Known about the structure:
This protein is α/β, with parallel strands linked by helices. The protein folds into 3 domains: 11-54, no CATH class; 55-67 and 99-229 and 278-487, TIM Barrel, CATH 3.20.20; 232-275, no CATH class. Helices cover 38% and strands 13% of the residues. The protein is built from 21 helices and 17 strands. The chain has helices at residues 42-49, 128-131, 134-144, 154-157, 172-182, 198-203, 205-213, 238-246, 258-265, 283-296, 310-323, 342-347, 352-368, 385-394, 406-423, 429-432, 438-441, 445-452, 461-483, 502-508, 518-525; strands at residues 77-79, 105-107, 113-115, 119-124, 147-150, 162-164, 167-170, 192-196, 217-221, 232-235, 250-252, 272-275, 300-305, 327-331, 375-379, 399-403, 497-499. Strands 4-5-8-9-13-14-15-16 form an 8-stranded parallel beta barrel, surrounded by 7 helices. Strands 10-12-11 form a 3-stranded antiparallel β-sheet, with helices on one face. Helix 3 crosses helix 19. The longest helix has 23 residues, at 461-483. It is globular and about 85 Å long.
Amino acid sequence: MASLSRINASAATLTKNRTEDSIVYLSGMCVTCVDGCIGMCEIGKSAYRGHEVLYPQPFGIITAASEKNYPIDYSHFNIMGSAVGAHGIEPDPDKAIFPNVNLEQKIGHDKGIKVRLPIVVPGLGSTNVAKNNWDGIAVGAAISGIIMTIGENVAAMDMESEIKSGRVVKAPDLEYRVKAYKQWQRDGYGTIVVQANVEDTRLGVQEFAIEKLGVEAVELKWGQGAKDIGGEVKIKDLKKAQELRKRGYIVLPDPLDPDVIKAFEKRAFSEFERHSRIGMVDLESFVKRVEELRKAGAKYVFLKTGAYRPADLARAVKYSSIAKIDLLTVDGAGGGTGMSPWHMMNEWGVPPVELHSLTYFYADKLAKQGEYVPAIAFAGGIAFEDQIFKALALGAPYAKLVGMARSIVCAAMVGKTIGKKIEENEIPVFIERFGNQKEEIFVTASKLKKELGKDFERLPTGAIGVYTYLERIAQGLRQLMCGNRKFTLDYITRNDIAALTREAAEVSGIPYVTELDKEEAEQILAGKKY
């Protein structure tokens, strides 16, 4: 069996093997490592750029996710259609059509958060790829009626922010991000969420967002599927690196060290690393923090956890139950929208199917004990409608949403790029065949123009890209649900999917495909049921 990982050479680290067709699976090295090679592989590049090669490159204009070929993924399940009946609609061929599938969902202790699609965009924080595409991402999410999360470190990374006595009192970038979403919300669908890590909590970012920006939903962050350390970014400006160091961040190398300053000025290196701290989770402090946020005015409190070991997942489920939070997002290994260390992204954590299966088992155990189970969102490489359906089925009835970030960013970047090409009159041939104006290129443009009126002209093309992508997702999901005879999300069950391998069945508890409906099939064949 070949290696599950692609190590020592990747587009993510801008490296490659010299002998691309002949590689040692154990190490990823070329079978013959030759004296005189300039060092194209990751080992070679590390010989002269060292720790810089830990991270995907070039930082700020890419998103990155694991290349690891996990033993089980969502492709190891198939969706089971049916020729019988209809759930959530009258079983009439003229009514049970896929445009009539209802994709709306409601979450929260009071069911007060409604979404048009069962999607939350997990935290997109201080990375340049999030900041530079925020208009497209946030506005696209708002007009699509889904939940948008502002990730960690946004306030403190903003050099225009003001911090007095260790608390944020002004945060222009955070304010901009909140308003960008809110001003495009339609009919009360979706909500904007402000996430916080250790540094954000110390600075009172969530209290500021609640009191000054009118944010109703906040999210505590234990981690994500991409890494098991705090968030990190690269800083190319010495003064900014120094200010972030003063604001309490870990900045490497130390930008206040005179020798480091001299080395930077001589271009011995060109960027600093800013790192966040890891949290220290315990039940008492978790419950206390949830109570603090509610007293501060938070209407909804969420938790996002990463791909930590099963015991930590159990803690997340149990603590969320005790504190009665409104949404628990569980993010499987391998995902990423920022610049997590590349090998960590590939080799750390519990993969999505395994993590999501465990989440179901733990939530189901609590439910059977009569305990509170919050709404759950599954995240980790989900990008298309079939994956959404499978994730919701795997976690049913507890999984209410899926988290999608990297694909949303992709759609926003493509939409933005098309807008620029239209302005520059340099539309690529691949796109020009559809037209040369946004009303011609974007298939949803005429609908949006009718709905938004004059506001359409100021709609970022990145947002149109997100909306159009999600329109495709919505129609595809409706088709899958219609074929399954499920016309509202609440009718999706674990019985709606089947495992294609014995291993997938064993891990997930989902029946192997030929064992599905076994008893019912026997009854039909025996004439006991029709």
